[in-house]
């Protein structure tokens, strides 16, 4: 029996184009000024230290860090330091009304239904937990963070690693076969399935012919009671 559902964001609850055409360019545009302005903030300093460590460039100055971060953004590298900084930059964009978090229309009513059924709801994204809370806190449907019991980011591990799903199951405190992971990326679902989770793939765009996971186009097609 499914007792908790963990959902990806990009391509699952929200349009990949919102992330790639709105969020990522906003972070890119404001990165240099943000780092110059906020470098003394302990959370910014900690994220910059993480980037120096990841790049194995302990002596990198601000110019070097901007160059490294631009290259990570070009590669869409799921760097924990970059993701922390992007989340902090997006905060300004949400607060000043530059954008709201995109949600597919089927997402909110189905999450509400699952919550009423007593199913725990969680998020797992490469975006930082702070960025996840912003997207759902300033979503097109208003603040829906109350639906979620917890959030996970790359601090538990990368999304294609089996150990990440074991870590999440430990933190939620449920056995793997009581957990359902929703994602658009079959490699992430492969890792979750190897950890013993149930999986469903969201196909919001083109079909994925390489996938061995059950595929749906909307959340409303998923009935946790029959999984
Ligand atoms: C919190 S929305 C931004 C998501 C993000 O930054 C990202 O890189 C999405 O990556 P994912 O592995 O979750 O598809
Ligand atoms: Mg995704």
Topology:
Elements: E1 4-7, H1 16-38, H2 42-55, H3 62-75, H4 80-95, H5 107-116, E2 120-124, H6 129-137, E3 150-152, H7 162-172, E4 179-183, H8 186-194, E5 198-202, E6 215-216
Parallel strand pairs: 1-2, 1-4, 2-3, 4-5, 5-6
The ligand CSCCC(=O)C(=O)COP(=O)(O)O binds next to helix 1, helix 4 and helix 6.
GO molecular function, one term: acireductone synthase activity
Protein name: Enolase-phosphatase E1
Pfam families: Hydrolase
Describe the structure.
The model has no long low-confidence stretch (mean pLDDT 98). The N and C termini lie close together (7 Å). The protein has a six-stranded parallel sheet with strand order 3-2-1-4-5-6, sandwiched between helices. It contains eight helices and six strands, in the order E-H-H-H-H-H-E-H-E-H-E-H-E-E. Helix content is 47%, strand content 11%. The longest helix has 23 residues, at 16-38. By secondary structure, the chain is α/β, with parallel strands linked by helices. The structure holds ligand L4RZE5RM and magnesium ion.
Name the features.
six-stranded parallel sheet; binds ligand L4RZE5RM; binds magnesium ion; alpha/beta; about 230 residues; globular; single chain
